[in-house]
Amino acid sequence: MERFGSVGFGPVLLVCLMSGASALPHTANPHSQCKSCDPRPAACNSYQCISNCSVSKVCPNPQDVCIAVWWRQAGVVTVETRCHDPTQPLRGVMLEDYSSSDCVLTIRHVSGHNLRLCACTGRDCNERMLLNKPSEDSELVIMNASKNKPFRLPQLCKFCDFESTECNATGVCESSCNIKSICEDPEEVCVSAWRRSEGKTLIETVCHNPALKFHGQYLTDYSNTRCEMKKVKGMEDFYICSCNAEECNDRLFFPGDSPGDEQKKEPLLPVQVCLKRPEK
């Protein structure tokens, strides 16, 4: 110590050697900026959802990341966005991946409910939520499906439970449902039901797993791209259809209808025929 002290810069050099990197200038991590809104309906289309949050906030702590929590409430896709400390549990779940700039939703079963959670690092990165992470060779990892069992993307369906309708179970009807939802399970398809009960005509639109019964019936036509209504046996005023395409349960095709019947048919005009008595 005394020998170093005899040199003008010795004590300073000693401090540097003992403290190592701590003596180097420290640059603080910038605070993240995230979308921050209470639960609200989200706009979902295909593989992604937009939070519809117009509020951006600078996170209070430098370690905070952006998060989003996605769930379905009464058929409506609802999303909560905010800052979160990844060292703390989110809805009772510890975050595993929050370094990506993409907010990729993963399904978690929490307190008897299915939630989708995502976390990301980047300016307002929780504004858009993905069901699958984009790959280099294609827009979605899903496109790089395995040969044995392709990964299936959850379907997007109309989801309004029961609503009143003017449809009389003939021709082509539209559901009038203005809510669309990404199905929770990739195995689920789009389903609609038409029924008349106590003088009221109702249409139900939901997601449903065809491996399970729907109103006591197994779905048999769920691979179609259009929803073709079939009468439920033993029930005069009850029809069910299923299909596997985006929002395909919005238009309902009842028995007797064909693709060409979607165009309006001109009404047949009555023709009066006059028979002339032959002359004798």
Indicate the multimeric state: single chain
CATH level 1 class label of the largest domain: Mainly Beta
| Helical amount | under 10%
Q: How many domains make up the coordinates?
A: 2
- Written as H for each helix and E for each strand, in order along the chain, the element string is HHEEEEEEEEEEEEEEEEEEEEE
| Mean pLDDT over the full residue set | 77
Protein name: Transforming growth factor beta receptor 2 ectodomain domain-containing protein
Signal peptide: 1-23
Domain Transforming growth factor beta receptor 2 ectodomain: 34-136, 155-257
Keywords: Signal
Description of the structure:
- This protein has 280 residues and is mostly beta strands.
- The protein folds into two domains: 33-136, Ribbon (CD59); 156-258, CD59, CATH 2.10.60.
- It has two helices and 21 strands.
- It has helices at residues 2-5, 10-19, and strands at 33-35, 37-41, 43-45, 48-50, 56-58, 65-73, 76-84, 103-104, 106-110, 113-120, 128-130, 156-158, 161-164, 172-174, 180-182, 189-197, 200-208, 227-228, 230-231, 238-243, 251-253.
- The strands form six sheets. The protein has a five-stranded antiparallel β-sheet, with no helix packed on it.
- Keywords: Signal.
- Residues 1-23 form the signal peptide.
- Pfam families: ecTbetaR2.
- It comes from Culter alburnus (Topmouth culter).
- Residues 34-136, 155-257 form the Transforming growth factor beta receptor 2 ectodomain domain.
